[in-house]
Amino acid sequence: MKRNPTRELVAQLAAQLMCEHGMRDFSAARRKAARKLGIVDTHHLPGNEEIEAAIREYHAVFHADTHPQWLRQLRTSALQTMHMLSGFDPYLTGSVLDGSAGRHSDIDIELFTDNEKDVEMYLLNHNIPFRQADCGHRHGRRPVPCFILNGTLCDIRVSVRPADAVRHAARAGGELSRRASMTQLASLLAQETSDSASA
């Protein structure tokens, strides 16, 4: 594909805004970057995947010494939480999975069950502090329920989707999101440990 310097500039600035200023929303970061660069035509701005790639590049350049260890800690925390919520078919998604997570990132976990109240009761019965929030996702016309847990490293955002939705990848900003099961995440962590030991 032919390079587009304007898209690359917007992606790089959006990545910086998300890494250094804690912006979570790709659309907001994209628009703010375009405004800062004086770009009026918003029809050819970078997509989420281009910004994610720019974020990974930003970490590789500016946080090469600390980012891999931080990412491993976040993924380990995610796996521990998924084990705790294993009865609800948990999957990791978002920046911790794709490798673009930074110091301002949260851990995003999706659960699949037809009764969100079961999740709430589980958290209450196990004395797990949480607050309910709007994760900004929808399933059809309904907002997706979201519980935010206080993790030791960051907030853990747990969204609850219908059981049959596990067959379909959720869309984030119009783009298909990726997700990993406990087994897949454990394999990823094991591979990272092996790679760092042989480096």
Model description:
This protein is of the alpha+beta class and 199 residues long. The chain has 2 domains: 5-62, no CATH class; 67-198, 2-Layer Sandwich (Beta Polymerase, domain 2), CATH 3.30.460. Helices cover 46% and strands 21% of the residues. It is built from 7 helices and 8 strands, in the order ααααβαβαββββββα. The strands form 2 sheets. Strands 3-4-5-2-1-8 form a 6-stranded mixed sheet. It is globular.
Summarize the entry for a quick read.
With 199 residues, the chain is of the alpha+beta class. The chain is built from 7 helices and 8 strands.
Instruction: Tell me the number of structural domains.
Output: 2
Percent range of helical residues: 40-55%
Number of H- or I-type helical stretches = 7
Global mean pLDDT? 86
Report the biggest beta sheet as strand number plus sense, adding barrel if it closes: 6 strands, mixed
Report the portion of residues in β strands. Answer: 15-25%
